[in-house]
Amino acid sequence: MNRSSILLATALLVHAHVNAQALGGRTVYLEEVTLPGMPGVQSFAWAQHNGEWLILGGRTDGLHQRQPFASFLAADNNTTAYVVDPVGLQVWSTSITSLPAALVEQLQCTNMEYVQRDTTLYVIGGYGYAASLLDHTTHDRLTAINVPGAIQAIKNGQPLGPHFRSLADPRMEVTGGYLGLEGDHFHLVGGQRFEGRYNPMGPNHGPGFVQEYTNAIRRFRIEDDGVNLTIADYQEVIDTVNLHRRDYNLVPQVFPNGTTGFTAFTGVFQYGQDLP
Questions:
Q1: Looking at the domain assignment, is residue 270 inside a domain?
Q2: For the segment 161-193, what is each residue's pLDDT rounded down to a tens digit?
């Protein structure tokens, strides 16, 4: 993996108590803050600029229903882009429906992979209902968002379009994975392609589905001159056991020898069963 390393681990239990000494003599306090207008969304993509947050996508209905006819309804997609000032306690919002249809379909879905590089938020894939297909799908798009531009547009009621660029690529058709950035290289780790309705009874009972885990680390560069997007130096590493996972956590890691990379913790996966 050249300069990058990925350590795969299953962490089922971590210490619930961390003392001040373990944090280098520092103490961490958590305090709940009430923020009027703060959106109730989950599984969204976000970025920040000058202390303000940009929030896109996700769902507004909490834990999804288990019945195929009721799960991941389009009515509960988040079709609003938000800007949040957590210090000034302000929230601005606007609809994303003025964007091109393909972007609207992607950016209102759930479990997108995303990471911010400098002032650009890169969003990949995601799962949700697509009106163009009349069904649920995993999107095959890489979308670049100018974070300060989008924030100002939302706050000032200006068009969003100039701040969004996108391309379609089947290698980006992933949901529930994780996107990490190390140096100039992006790492799209794990996840799956899921087509059709969520159905806990399996693909042959009622509404069917197709579920394909990537079992992969997809490593690439994004060449971005502010106008054109290109995926370059694409490589793929397959591990059908350790990378057969989705909906997990990937965090930066400094390894004992001083090199840096990522560690993947747990995840949702049933290796021998075709279930969502």
A1: no
A2: 999 999 999 999 999 999 999 999 999 999 999
